[in-house]
Design brief:
78 residues, mainly alpha, flat
């Protein structure tokens, strides 16, 4: 079937959708060999990069497209 993707792609998608936050935390820590400070530093650096990307994108968007929203340093609690 065209456009349906293969079985491996579907399995990857289903695994990603079923992952729990604890799994992602363990994966991030494992990537940094259990070093919590390195993990947090990497996450903060990625956050800063993404905030900058949002700022760049907002420069290209019209006021109406963004409905007046501007990027800021809002805290999002989980």
């Amino acid at each position: 079937m065209p456009g349906c993707g293969n079985l491996v792609e579907k399995e990857i998608l289903m695994n990603a959708m079923s992952r729990q936050p604890e799994d992602e935390i363990d994966e991030a820590l494992a990537y940094h060999q259990g070093d919590a400070r390195a993990t947090v530093a990497a996450l903060l650096a990625e956050r800063e990069f993404l905030l900058q990307e949002i700022e760049y994108a907002s420069l290209a968007m019209s006021y109406g497209f963004a409905r007046g929203w501007k990027p800021g340093n809002q805290k999002i609690a989980r």
